[in-house]
Amino acid sequence: MINDIVRDICQKVGGAISDEEAMFLYECAREVKKGVIVEIGAAHGRSTICLAMGSKSGSCAKVYSIDPQAGGMYTPDPTSGDVTSDGTPDMKYYVRQGTSSWKFLENIKKFDIGDIVVPIFDYSELAYCGWDKDIGLLFIDGDHRLNYVRKDIELWAKWVVSGGKILFHDVPFPGVSGAIKELILNNPRYTNYRGIGMDTIVNVTVVEEEID
Question: Which of the residues 54, 98, 125, 171 could staple to 29 if both were Cys, CB 3.0 to 4.6 A apart?
Fold first, then answer.
C-alpha cells in the first residue's frame, strides 16, 4: 500500500520509478540499521527523496546520491554514444550539464532533506575513489550498459554489510540483467534474489561482508 508521503513524492517529482517501486525504496531505507545508503543514478531525485524520507522514519542513515547529472531526464547525455567504453568515463565529459542538477537540488530543498542527502555530482567510478563507509542499502540505477553495471557492482557491492540489501532498477535491460547473471546469481555471498512489481526492481540480500 502506498503511503501519503510516497504518493506526494511521486506527484511532485518526475522520474521513472513507479509508485510501487517508490514505496519499496522507502521501506528498504527505513529498515537500514547499519551503514549508509548509496544510490547510483538520481535524475531529478524521486528515488533519492523516497530513500531519504524512509531513512528519516528509521535510523536517519545518510543517503549518498551519486549522479554526474550530465544531462539528466531532459538533456542529452554526452556519453550516450560511448558504445565501446570499458566503463571508465572519458574526462572530456562534463558533470552538471543542462538543468538536471539544479532541479535535483530544488527537489531536495522542497522536501527538506538536506540534512540526510549528500549529493555527489560525479560518475560512480570516480565517486568511489577514497570511499570508506559501510553501506546498508545500495541502489544501482545508473548507466544500464553492461560494462557500467558490472563496474558498479564490482566497486560498490563489497562495501555492503551483512544483512544489507542491493537493489537493481530496470532489470529487463540486457546490460543490467547480464551483470546480475555474471556477478550475483551464482555468488554465495548473495541470497534472497526476488523481483518487485513487474521485476523492474530486484532485491538481493548480502550474506556476509567483504570489507573488514
Answer: 54
In a domain, 182, yes or no: yes
Name the grid cell of 9: 513524492
Q: What angle do CA 55, 56, 57 make, to 5 degrees?
A: 90
Q: Whose CA is closest to 172, among 191, 192, 197, 153?
A: 197
Q: What is the 3-state secondary structure (H, E, C) of 83-120?
A: CCCCCCCCCCCCCCECCHHHHHHHHHHHCCCCCCEEEE
Helices (H) then strands (E): counts for the chain: 7, 7
211 inside domain: no
pLDDT under 70: residue ranges of the chain: 1, 71-98, 197-199, 208-212
Distance in angstroms (rounded) separating the CA atoms of residues 142 and 125: 11
The answer to the question of residue 180 being in a domain is yes
User: In the prediction, which pLDDT does 186 show?
Assistant: 87
pTM, 2 dp: 0.88
Report CA 96 to chain centroid distance, whole Å.
Answer: 18
Q: pLDDT digit string (tens) for 127-150?
A: 999 999 999 999 999 988 898 899
Which domain range does residue 19 map to? 4-80+89-206
**How far is Cα 65 from Cα 63, in angstroms, rounded to an integer?**
6
How many distinct structural domains can be found in the chain?
A: 1
CATH code, domain with 163 = 3.40.50.150
Q: Is residue 173 part of a domain?
A: yes
Q: In the beta sheet, which residues pair with residue 37?
A: 63, 137
